[in-house]
């Protein structure tokens, strides 16, 4: 049997365009899978990595986080998967630094506990929007103890339950999600709604329906001049336990609004995708932290939730993919498109 040829979209040095060239065919270590990728998705993180080389530990680099494809090889001690299974998975070059763990290649190594079987009726192109956002969303919601995000910055610990496959009643908690139409914000909305949390989402007015489809109970226009008043009133009106705010955007503007909301509501969690403002700038009783979206807290969700939830439609492949092209050479134009910004859209390259 001939050995398959691997190719990758390599980053040779920071700020340079990706170059498609030969790559070694990786093998699966214990607890790992090698996936023959059929689709990869683009995340804003990829653009930062390309521009600055941040997180790259080995040059030349292969990076990227989201893959969908077929299992090519199963490592020792892996029982949930067999060769040929259709899967989605989270590639973790971000933490491992190994090029073979990057998504932008034909064959990627992933940990088996960051993969799930993709139901036959869901295309690779749809399924690939899920992995990185899913892991980020679980890290937002379900960490029980603060951890390490970066020097001087803790991860948040909202300690909320995992999503349920059943219809769950309200658990009497309210979470505000700022940036609910982003990939991470919309996935966090889906998972929070699936635990019985009342989600109040802040999105562009053109994305109200999208955010409700993800499970937001109430939506507010991010450009509304009375945003702070309206969100604060809505939290009070809903009653119950105010968990806090998940900020899926993390800018000066979003932090300013959040500080006002938290101040009026007497504090709560402020979980962000970027380093939060320093404690000295925050009202009393605010637990602020930055998520770091690679964490084994997501393992039970990967193992027990993703496949049946996709099958039942409880977990939707949102935001919808926009296919930029077919082939590794299209990853660079997908990255360029991502830098220009997207709205409730995941950029995907088919392979
Ligand atoms: N720390 C971590 O582990 C981690 C993990 C994943 C992602 N991130 C970071 O999280 C951020 C989001 O990533 P993503 O992939 O989810 O982004 P994305 O899908 O590319 O975000 C696009 C969305 O952002 C929304 N948006 C932009 N500015 C906004 C504002 N001021 N208020 C409300 N919504 C706003 C837009 O909303 P409308 O079109 O509705 O206006 C749009 O739908 C990125 O900065 C990324 O690097 C961090």
UniProtKB/TrEMBL annotation:
GO MF annotation terms: oxidoreductase activity, acting on NAD(P)H
UniProtKB keywords: Oxidoreductase
TM ranges: none
Pfam family, one: ADH_zinc_N
Enoyl reductase (ER) domain residues: 15-349
Entry's family note: Belongs to the zinc-containing alcohol dehydrogenase family.
Protein's name in the database: Enoyl reductase (ER) domain-containing protein
